[in-house]
Amino acid sequence: MINSIKKFFSYFFVPAQHNNYRAKLIHHDVLTAYVVMGFLLVSLNRYFAVPFSNVLGVAKDISVIKLTEYTNEQRKLNNVKPLTYNKKLATAANEKAKSMFVNNYWAHFGPRGETPWQFITKSGYRYDSAGENLAKNFLYSKNVVTAWMNSPTHRDNLLRKDFTEVGFAVVDGTLGGEQTTLVVQMFAKPSTTKTTAKVLSEYTTVQPTTSPKPLITVPFTSTQLASGFLIFLLGVFALDFYIASKLKLVRMHGKSLAHFIFIFAIVVATIMLLVNGTIL
Amino acid sequence: MPSHMRKALKTELGTHNVDYLVLITATVFFLLFLKFFQGERNYSYLTVLTFSAFYVVWGIIHHMRDDSVHLKNVLEYILISFGVLLLMIVLFAS
Fold it and tell me: Best mutation site among A273, A275, A279 for testing chain B: the one with the most B CBs within 10 Å?
């Protein structure tokens, strides 16, 4: 039993005579299988993106709960009182995100002069001061808040003592012909008078709203699967290079060292793309 | 790192120093471009596509210089770069 497991492992991972001195997992036929599987994943994603949106395509993990949690975590660390979640501000944030998708803009002020404050007032919220933060193309809540904390103006909004309430919107859509996820965060201090005050803070932070619940949930997102596979492939090529150098093999194959460098660059690129989005 | 691996690395990099210098330089530029186009998904795709295509060309030229160019080698570079490209599309398609 142990021997057959050993043999199986050796066949797939270790270059030896029985696999023509090349780990089976990086043989041409298996590499072709990877490409076919990748192609199927992309096609399935394209055709089933709507009903199975959380199965293949949507790899983001941004939620209102986490955004609120990380925002308040930063405020606590800086000795500022945590913000209370406000549904009206969330509605305003949601309307702002929708407006950006419908009118195709990425800015605090709309092409027809729409201001962030109009959305807040429209939601029925009365404020003394308010602020807005925007973010797009992020995959994780923590990265959104970290990016805001790294930008002085967004940080000012996030840590402003004046603000006591917050609302978020996380909305998927197409902006400038590109599929994206917009995060809108709206901060405010409720008005103490009956009329709306005209004092407005700088537009700053973010506010996420709840995303629609997935129809099907899977234990791994496509991002995790794809990144895991890249790291796995990196390991197979490293092992191949190790064994080949140990056995002093001369083979008529592609260079494992070059493949390793290429895949390593892609892994670094993946990490960069997962971390980086844009804030406004 | 084991001595046999270090020796093999030294030999490979020493014999094909120009080739690997080009590959590493291209890798650095690829990452710099990605950083530069941060948040611009279409440009990021284009950068990954260019780097993948470059890798295939690099592989062919490298094996030509090494007198070991073979259809199987070319296919291997195409499969790896195309496979990785598909993975990147899966990662960032939506």
Answer: A273
B chain contacts of residue A236, beta-carbon cutoff 8 Å: none
For residue A275, list chain B residues with Cβ-Cβ distance below 8 A. Answer: none
Choose among B36, B51, B86, B42: nearest CA to A137: B42
Give residue-wise pLDDT tens across range A192-233: 765 444 434 444 433 333 333 333 334 455 666 777 888 888
**DSSP secondary structure string, A112-147?**
T---HHHHHHHTT--EEEEEEEEEES-SBHHHHHHH
Instruction: Tell me, yes or no, if the pTM score tops 0.90.
Output: no
Please, are residues A164 and A189 in contact by the beta-carbon 8 Å criterion?
Answer: yes
Query: From the CA atom positions of chain A, what is the Rg in Å?
Result: 25
Q: B8 in the Ramachandran plot: left (φ > 0), alpha (ψ -120 to 50) or beta?
A: alpha
pLDDT above 70 (res A175): yes
Which of A50, A10, A11, A13 is closest to A214 using CA atoms? A50
Inter-chain residue contact B9 with A245, CB threshold 8 Å: yes
- Per-residue pLDDT averaged across A99-114, rounded? 86
CB contact under 8 A, A255 and B12: yes
Nearest to A240 by CA among A35, A30, A12: A12
In this model, does residue A136 exceed pLDDT 80? Answer: yes
- All residues of chain B having their beta carbon less than 8 Å from the beta carbon of residue A248 are 4
Nearest by CB to B90, from A31, A226, A266: name it: A226
pLDDT in tens, B34-61: 888 876 667 888 888 999 999 999 999 9
